[in-house]
Amino acid sequence: MQDAAGTAGARVNSEVDSLVRAAQRGDQDAFEQLVRAYDQSVLRLAMNLLRSPEDARDVYQEAFLRVYRNLHSFRFDCSFHTWLYRIVTNICLDQLRKRKVRKEEPAVVETSEGAIDRTEAFEEESAAANPERVTWNRQLGQRIDDALDELTPRERMVFELRHYQGLRLRNIGEILGTSEEAAKNCFFRATQKMRTLLGDLV
Amino acid sequence: MTCDAVRKLIPLYYYGELTPEEEDQAEAHIHECAPCARQMEAARTLAAALDRRRMEAPAALLADCRADLAAAVRGAAAEPAWRLWLQAAGATLAGFNRWRQPLGAVALIALGFFAARLIPAGSGSGVSTASLAPSEGVFVNVRSAQPDASGRVRIAYDETRRREVFGSIDKPEIQKLLLVAAREEDDPGVRVESVGLLKERAGSDEVREALMNALLHDTNPGVRLKALEGLKPLAAEPPVRGVLSRALEFDDNDAVRMQAVDLLTLRRDETMVGVLQNLVQKEDNSYVRSKCEKALKEMNASIGTF
Q: Which candidate in A34, A38, A151, B223 could, as Cys together with A156 as Cys, close a disulfide (CB 3.0–4.6 Å)?
């Protein structure tokens, strides 16, 4: 499913802009609609990058609070999506730089609907009934996680935004405050590293 | 175009990030060159493998994030002091037993109604507003609000005062509070924290009892998982094993059963055979089932009960 951040089903920009203007005037409903248009993709991004529901939750909260506090200073110099993603990627990059993702972080996070086993958030594993397949998927998942950990935070971010979030490299450059060319080079380095590390899978 | 040049373009080609001219050139080359075609295929396979690792944010997590944000935004909006105070009172009311809630809600609305009128009006109305605006850290539960003929109102309320204590977790009074919180606190977040802190002190009998109690009876799986972590070093003790085995048999949460089976099968224990055989038959979770089967095989016991 794609939401406003994706290419398909994107809200018409003018609709987003009018929500932003209403929210800037203090309309809480408009702010909530804005959040709901983008928050799934923000949470997915944070979850994919940090692989910890708790950290993803922190990123979500901090990002949208920053949006709430600074929305008055948004001048429509770029799309709201780009502006929002600048905030989100900055917070995530800080987190990634602060730590290499800990290997033994808690597997379970508490939510109001009970505990979530983060391994079950992976699409493949939850449905599989066959133990060997589960084991194989876990091993493959671990290999991929390890390979992703080898990327620099910036390479990881560019790769995430392109491969998992489906953003164009030009847009990624704009979000990360760099040129399309630099984003391309960074993405190329990331794919090369992945190829080297996961070469036996392909 | 040389093979080297094309290989540099392959990842970008796969993701559709080449200029139209570059794309034409790469396509023409790949069409003619088997090794480069294989490289292209490898890029596809790698992307497919990576796709399997795509994470979706669980719906419950999204719901919690939205609730957190809504609360934070409400807090951030500049609000008159009396409304913040009412929110604190509301939070206290929210923790009440269900049957009390309608009364609490009515009382809160009534209080909001009167507070909104009385507090900004200040003094001079013959009403002591001080009694309606308790100092910080005091939570109020309104029991009754009755207007009288003169247009004044009589409100009866209970006060709960918040206090803070600091101290090492080894101090008995701190542990006592944590034990109470682990057992009785309404907010599962507080119970998770309390059990999480207590689990470091599982050596004491009282704490061990509390952890076992939480594992068996707490309604929240997060609390039960914390309790399990605390019981880990004690997994050899018979009473702890009894509790673990009940959790393994009856807990409805997969993660709890997965942890319980791990702890129980760390060492050979023939008294477990019956429980394990039973689980092989009825357990839905494949991990738990396979751990049971493995433990049974190691004990040379039959997998099923025939």
A: A151
Is residue B190 a contact partner of residue B179, using CB atoms and an 8 Å limit?
no
Residue B275 touches partner A, C-beta closer than 8 Å: no
For residue A71, give the DSSP letter: G
The region of weakest confidence among A89-98, B4-13, B146-155 is: B146-155
Domain boundaries, chain A: 1-118, 122-202
Flag whether pLDDT at B225 surpasses 70: yes
Contact A137, A143 (CB under 8 A): no
Fold of A122-202: Arc Repressor Mutant, subunit A (1.10.10)
Q: How many angstroms away from the CA of B60 is the closest CA of chain A?
A: 6
Give the minimum alpha-carbon distance from A182 to chain B in angstroms, rounded to a whole number.
Answer: 13
> How many C-beta atoms surround the C-beta of residue B161 within 10 A?
9
Question: The whole model's pTM is what?
Answer: 0.52
Q: Which of residues 50-109 of A touch B (CB under 8 A)?
A: 51, 53, 56-57, 60-61, 64-65, 68-69, 107-109
Residue B127 has pLDDT above 60, yes or no: no
Mean pLDDT score across all residues of chain A:
82
